[in-house]
Amino acid sequence: MNLITRGFHGRRGGDPDRIPPGQYQTHDFPVLTVGPTPRVDTDTWTLTITTETGTRHTWTWRQLLDLPQENPHTDIHCVTRWTKLDTDWTGVSLDTLLHDVETTADYALAHSHGGYTTNLPLQDLTDGQAWIAHTFDGRPLTPEHGGPARLLVPHLYFWKSAKWISGLTLHHEDEPGFWEQAGYHDYGDPWREQRYRGD
Fold first, then answer.
1. Confidence grade of residue 13 (pLDDT, cut at 50, 70, 90)
2. Domain assignment of residue 102, yes or no
3. How far is CA 43 from CA 60, 62, 63, in A?
4. Residue 94 within any structural domain of the chain
5. How many domains would you assign to the chain?
6. Is there a contact between 49 and 56 (Cβ–Cβ < 8 Å)?
7. With contact defined as beta carbons under 8 Å apart, do 152 and 130 qualify?
8. What is d(CA 169, CA 188) in angstroms, rounded to the nearest whole number?
9. pLDDT tens digits for 139-192?
10. What parts of the sequence cross the membrane (predicted)?
11. pLDDT tens digits, residue range 20-48?
12. Is 199 among the domain residues?
């Protein structure tokens, strides 16, 4: 089975200063998923950050909601070439979650319910760049869009914003995730069109 698609096509349109090369603006929110959509009950949902030494930090759904909440307003860019401008989210900054986590790791591997993984440099999850998002456009995030919670890393292609997030493991070495092993770019900067390995 070919897991890589060169994407949908449409007119670029919109604000060229906000739409990366090779992208077009959509006003919809396309749903792209490989495999069945997990249905995760918030009564049993947890988020675990595991350090390179094996130390685990875990939050329940209630504990996540009790943390300081932020409301990022941002553009998002999918590797299949759509860009959605001015999206509104609510969630917890990774800065908040990592505040008391002692680590010297350089990389994180995000894990999702359903087995999906994706890798990111840890520096791309800090300094106000990433969130665990549970609300989109004022409503709870639907399962089709990664609810009850997903990783939100809007400065990278959207496959890095792992749906149905269940945890992060921190590593000294980079460890490719699901799509990266299938041929997608290891980093995924939309402004440099880092879609596929070798871009």
1. low
2. yes
3. 8, 9, 11
4. yes
5. 1
6. yes
7. yes
8. 19
9. 999 999 999 999 999 999 999 999 999 999 999 999 999 999 999 999 999 999
10. none
11. 999 999 999 988 777 789 999 999 999 99
12. no
Give the whole-angstrom CA distance, residue 26 versus residue 43: 34
- The encoded tokens of residue 170 equal 């921190």
C-alpha to C-alpha distance for 196 and 8, rounded to whole angstroms: 15
* 67 located within any domain: yes
How many other β-carbons are positioned within 10 Å of the β-carbon of residue 156?
Answer: 24
Q: Which amino acid is at 5?
A: T
Q: How far apart are CA 163 and CA 149, in angstroms?
A: 7
Q: What is the pLDDT of residues 108-146, one digit of tens each?
A: 999 999 899 999 999 999 999 999 999 999 999 999 999
CATH assignment at residue 93: 3.90.420.10
**Rounded average pLDDT over 3-23:** 65
